[in-house]
């Protein structure tokens, strides 16, 4: 905390320095001025919390200084130290915010009490200022969300306008006399990928920046307002209620501002003028359709309306027509085969005269559904959470691959599709190799532990796999059931042991994992065609 001592007599300033225990009051800096004018310079530069001033000084006296402080430094607390017992000076001190009036010669106790009182008042005011700053910050954060929700709701529920009309006029200059309005939409779906990648970890910041740029033009001209659509993660909606015939030209002006700030342009969809607020939803839907139905293979304009949208009849091309070919390519593990299959799809796409966002979104959704189905087929032993983990390389929403001119880049799309399919194929190969490895580990385990009472459940617990999965994969790899494979190992070991005439049949049975001699004999005869005794006689006679 800083204190300023203002007095034309140096010995008075020195006396005040000696009479106050500054550290006890938390005072870190003591400043000095010999008149009102020099005091003003210091106040402007240092912003002291407490000012102790004399009233009778040359150049600018304490009376004028108090008046100046009251206007230009209202947060500072002022203590007057004067040699004049004058009621008019006391009244002037109180009028202009002074906290105390002390007479010279200075009483140390009175001075310290006055300083303590002033500091307490300053701290109390500072707490209030801090609270107000925090509230203002909070309000500034909440306010945009409030307008987002209110205006988004206005599109869906026009009847909500009457309750908010007065506030809209006061805050956004949306006059009650407005009878018509146009809706424009800026969507992140078709922004350049480089820009979206730059903000990939904070799309909220990108939306915030775009909205601010739009409103710099709209609000300053009082012709509209931009807000984040509450029901969409990627849409910014612009309400245009002034000079509607010039809206397209004004959107182009905003687009130029976006290009200057973010080094990119964006596509706007715009609806026709409709009754406000009753038909806002109609203008909004027109703007949305204009964006979704524009031809992404050409860039004639950045501003799109349904009146200008080409009505091209599209061939019935679906991604699902290529599902079997793509699935076979994935299973093949051949990058060449995958590239050839993707090329066949892209060749079919190139035959389309126009590709709309709507069509692209449909193909993308088809691919998402197919990829999920493939993952569930290829990795049948995994949980739903693991399925989601394997699909993490896919974006949660459509990212349109555009070139620097805002035109759909089929080559970028082909690269991305190829990358995605090759990635899935590699995961499948890794899984197959891992499956094969673990099955051989199970077979090796059986070779070492054939003499123990080993069950399928024991193996499942040991290798953290399901019994069904082990049974299926084991049969695929060895073309025999796991139980039969274990039986073959045991019989092979039993035939070796039976050659020893000193071992009883019951001992041999126990040594190869059978506690029941009769059951062992039954299994042995089924597999070898002879009883253990018959085999022993035959083997020992050779």
From TrEMBL:
InterPro entries: CdaR_GGDEF, CheY-like_superfamily, Homeodomain-like_sf, HTH_AraC, HTH_AraC-typ_CS, Sig_transdc_resp-reg_receiver, Tscrpt_reg_AraC-type_HTH. Coiled coil: none annotated. Residues 440-538 form the HTH araC/xylS-type domain. Pfam families: GGDEF_2, HTH_18, Response_reg. CDD domains: REC_YesN-like. The modification 4-aspartylphosphate is found at residue 54. SMART domains: HTH_ARAC, REC. Residues 2-119 form the Response regulatory domain. Keywords: DNA-binding, Phosphoprotein, Transcription, Transcription regulation. PROSITE patterns: HTH_ARAC_FAMILY_1, HTH_ARAC_FAMILY_2, RESPONSE_REGULATORY. This is Response regulator. The lineage of its organism: Bacteria, Bacillati, Bacillota, Bacilli, Bacillales.
């Amino acid at each position: 905390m800083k204190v300023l001592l203002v007095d034309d007599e140096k010995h008075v300033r020195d006396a005040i320095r000696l009479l106050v225990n500054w550290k006890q009051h938390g005072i870190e800096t003591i400043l000095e001025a010999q008149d009102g004018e020099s005091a003003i310079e210091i106040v402007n530069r240092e912003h002291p919390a407490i000012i102790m001033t004399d009233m009778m000084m040359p150049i600018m006296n304490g009376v004028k200084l108090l008046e100046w402080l009251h206007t230009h430094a209202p947060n500072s607390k002022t203590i007057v130290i004067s040699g004049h017992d004058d009621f008019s000076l006391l009244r002037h001190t109180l009028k202009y915010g002074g906290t105390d009036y002390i007479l010279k010669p200075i009483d140390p106790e009175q001075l310290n009490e006055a300083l303590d009182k002033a500091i307490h008042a300053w701290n109390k005011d500072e707490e209030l200022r801090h609270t107000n700053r925090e509230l203002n910050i909070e309000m500034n954060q909440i306010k945009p969300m409030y307008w987002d929700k209110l205006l988004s709701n206005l599109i869906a529920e026009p009847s909500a306008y009457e309750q908010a009309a007065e506030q809209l006029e006061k805050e956004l200059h949306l006059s009650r006399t407005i009878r018509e309005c146009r809706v424009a939409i800026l969507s992140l779906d078709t922004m350049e990928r480089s820009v979206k990648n730059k903000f990939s970890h904070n799309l909220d910041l990108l939306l915030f920046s775009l909205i601010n740029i739009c409103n710099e033009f709209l609000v300053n001209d009082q012709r509209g307002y931009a807000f984040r659509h509450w029901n969409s993660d990627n849409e910014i909606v612009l309400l245009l209620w002034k000079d509607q015939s010039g809206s397209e030209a004004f959107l182009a002006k905003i687009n130029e501002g976006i290009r200057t700030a973010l080094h990119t342009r964006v596509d706007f969809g715009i609806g026709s003028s409709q009754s406000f607020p009753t038909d806002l939803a109609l203008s909004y839907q027109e703007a949305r359709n204009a964006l979704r139905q524009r031809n992404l293979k050409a860039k004639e304009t950045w501003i799109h309306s349904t009146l200008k949208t080409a009505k091209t009849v599209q061939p019935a091309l679906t991604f699902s027509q290529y599902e079997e070919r793509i699935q076979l390519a994935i299973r093949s593990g051949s990058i060449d085969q995958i590239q050839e299959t993707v090329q066949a799809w892209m060749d079919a796409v190139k035959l389309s005269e126009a590709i709309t966002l709507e069509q692209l979104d449909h193909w993308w959704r088809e691919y998402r559904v197919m990829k999920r189905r493939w993952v569930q087929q290829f990795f049948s032993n995994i949980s739903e959470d693991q399925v989601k983990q394997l699909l993490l390389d896919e974006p949660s929403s459509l990212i349109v691959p555009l070139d620097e001119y805002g035109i759909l880049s089929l080559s970028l799309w082909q690269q991305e599709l190829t990358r995605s399919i090759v990635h899935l194929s590699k995961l499948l190969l890794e899984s197959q190799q891992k499956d094969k490895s673990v099955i051989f580990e199970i077979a090796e385990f059986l070779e070492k532990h054939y003499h123990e009472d080993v069950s399928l459940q024991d193996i499942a617990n040991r290798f953290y796999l399901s019994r069904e999965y082990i049974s299926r994969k084991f049969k695929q790899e060895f073309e025999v059931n796991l139980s039969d494979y274990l039986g073959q190992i045991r019989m092979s070991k039993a035939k070796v042991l039976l050659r020893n005439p000193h071992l009883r049949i019951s001992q041999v049975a126990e040594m190869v994992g059978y506690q029941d001699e009769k059951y062992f004999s039954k299994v042995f005869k089924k597999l070898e065609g002879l009883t253990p005794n018959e085999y022993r006689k035959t083997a020992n006679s050779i």
